[in-house]
Design brief:
577 residues, alpha/beta, Amidase signature (AS) enzymes, 11-stranded mixed sheet, two-stranded antiparallel sheet, 11% strand
Length: 577
């Protein structure tokens, strides 16, 4: 894969990196919800024939969409609704109440919803009840389900009601705040009320404590609606497997074309859910493409921050050097609001400089005259990207033609895998609940091999390779740390250094790419990136225009995004959602 010229439509960049060497990487965490069936039958119809959909997918030109299964082999979707049956039954989709709320809530931004709440036309409780009913209605519809949600918070309505009470008591709510509004967390982010599974059977009962970003969200009054499905172990688990699949959540589907287009990974559920109007916004995570890929594939705005801008404590890791959490939403304003609600200084996260304690992004109208934008010549054949850049050029941006061909090194995956061996063991030791039986990747490998058809239907090639390094690391910790340092020096200097040199050589302020292309170079240079909807191909497939800027220049990216949104929003909601 030549990352400088080509790009993979909607796939996490990690899936396209070569694997070689005995200890490679790729994965995240496994979860498994073997909970008992709900008392009410709220699942898909018993007449649904999954094989028919799989047969359609078998003819898809994208071989990564030749899925083996759609539903989870480990748990019924009924477990998602446990504790919420009354909420769902109280708001059937053919009721006047549902239709009223649908008209008021769907496709609305935080600013619009806060205005309606302040006018008395809506309450936070009604908004949360509506989203729960909507998720149930779509996820139990044979023709529309997305497998985008892995669990829902049975106390979400209580949290929304408490927010209503605070407002009534005179709490001052900013007009663009997420206070009282429901969001989803990618299911590798800790939330005390639900297991944190990374989609894996081995973590099905991982009732971990709140991640730092979850604490910040709750402190700011944001309602945690539930957990989004994901590519299992954040797509660092198997090779050649589809993005968006997890043993516990099944195969996530793209609302812009359920059986046509990839969801992107690994924050696939976060992308599909917000595109399908399951919540206001979602928190994703990225190592090298996992926010940019599903955001662009699902026509969303997605911000991959500088590693160190937002906390990673309490998040199932791949690489402590590269991992970051980040916001995904339908509008730039909601992305900024979610980022601000998560921001705060976490002394436990050694990647965070103290400047982030007061870090806050703004949506503002800023003069971009003279800003230098690198435009890779290969993108001249992409009319949607050319059109977006032309709008910026009209706003005074200087377009600088460049070549973009970063090196493609097998050490990239080796490095991520080596860090995951160390960082996952640390996470399991410090965060996993007592119900989790695995402590190492070797344990995970053995656990999955016990029932591979259910726990790892696409294999676990990356786990197998990481186990080789784990054995080496355990036999000589100093030598293992030395090898990690050696690999890090190679990839940071050669891959990240390439991007630094490109910016320096052309005196660039920002670089434009398409979808998640460039994510690997951006990760190793620790550059933040913003993707926003650029439009749609003739087939209806979403395309994202993506911008990279040097470390901690998130505000520069937001200013560019604001200029593009002000010139005309390119996003259209998916038909039928």
């Amino acid at each position: 894969m030549n990352k400088g010229v080509t790009f993979d439509e909607g796939l996490d960049i990690k899936s396209g990196i070569r694997t070689s060497f005995g200890f490679v990487v790729l994965g995240f965490l496994l979860m498994l919800s073997l909970a008992a069936s709900a008392t009410h039958s709220l699942a898909q119809s018993i007449d649904y024939d999954e094989e028919k959909d799989l047969a359609v997918l078998a003819s898809n030109q994208n071989v990564r969409m030749h899925y083996q299964r759609l539903s989870s082999p480990l748990r019924s979707k009924e477990t998602i609704w446990q504790g919420l049956e009354r909420v769902i039954e109280a708001m059937p989709t053919d009721s006047d109440d549902y239709r009223r709320l649908e008209a008021l809530v769907v496709e609305k931004s935080a600013t619009q919803l806060q205005s309606l709440v302040s006018q008395g036309a809506l309450s936070y409780e009604e908004i949360t009840r509506f989203f729960i009913a909507r998720i149930h209605a779509i996820e139990t519809d044979d023709q529309r389900y997305l497998n985008a949600v892995i669990s829902l918070n049975p106390l979400a309505v209580d949290a929304a009601r408490a927010a209503d009470d605070e407002r009534k008591e005179g709490k001052n709510i900013a007009p663009d705040s997420l206070f009282g509004l429901p969001i989803l967390l990618k299911d590798n982010i800790g939330f005390e009320g639900l297991p944190t599974t990374a989609g894996a059977a081995a973590l099905a009962e991982n009732y971990a404590r709140d991640a730092f970003v979850t604490q910040r969200l709750k402190a700011n009054g944001v309602v945690i609606l539930g957990k989004a499905n994901l590519s299992e172990w954040a797509y660092f688990f198997c090779t050649g497997c589809p993005s968006g699949y997890s043993a516990l959540g099944g195969q996530t589907l793209n609302p812009y074309g359920r059986l046509k287009f990839n969801t992107g990974g690994s924050s696939a559920g976060s992308g599909a859910a917000i595109a399908g109007n399951y919540a206001l916004a979602a928190v994703g995570s990225e190592t090298a493409g996992s926010i940019l890929s599903p955001s662009s594939a699902n026509s969303l705005v997605g911000l991959k921050p500088t590693t160190g801008s937002l906390s990673r404590s309490g998040v199932v890791p791949i690489s402590s050097t590269l991992d970051t959490t980040g916001p995904m939403a339908r509008t730039l304003g909601d992305v900024v609001a979610l980022f601000n609600a998560m921001a705060g200084y976490d002394q436990a996260d050694t990647a965070m400089p103290r400047l982030t304690e007061d870090l806050k992004l703004l949506v503002r109208d800023t003069d971009l005259t003279g800003l230098r934008l690198g435009f890779p010549e290969a993108l001249a054949s992409e009319p949607l990207i050319v059109a977006a850049v032309s709008k910026l050029e009209a706003a005074g941006v200087v377009v600088v033609p460049v070549e973009f061909a970063p090196p493609d090194l097998f050490e990239e995956v080796q490095f991520m895998g080596a860090e995951m061996v160390r960082d996952l063991a640390e996470y399991l030791s410090e965060n996993a609940s007592d119900e989790v039986s695995i402590e190492t990747l070797s344990d995970l490998q053995a656990y999955n091999l016990d029932i591979p058809s259910e726990r790892a239907p696409y294999g676990q090639a990356l786990v197998d390779q990481m186990v080789d390094f784990e054995i080496f690391f355990q036999s000589d910790i100093a030598a293992g740390e030395g090898e990690i340092a050696r690999l890090k020096q190679i990839v940071v200097e050669e891959v990240g250094g390439y991007l630094n040199a490109l910016f320096s050589r052309h005196d660039l302020d920002v670089l434009v790419r398409i979808n998640n292309s460039g994510a690997s170079a951006g990760a190793f240079a620790n550059y933040p990136a913003l993707t926003i909807p650029a439009g749609y191909r003739v087939s209806g497939q979403p395309v994202g225009v993506t911008f990279y800027a040097p470390s901690f220049q998130e505000q520069r990216l937001i200013d560019i995004g604001q200029k593009l949104e002000a010139s005309g929003v390119m996003r259209q909601p998916p038909s039928g959602y």
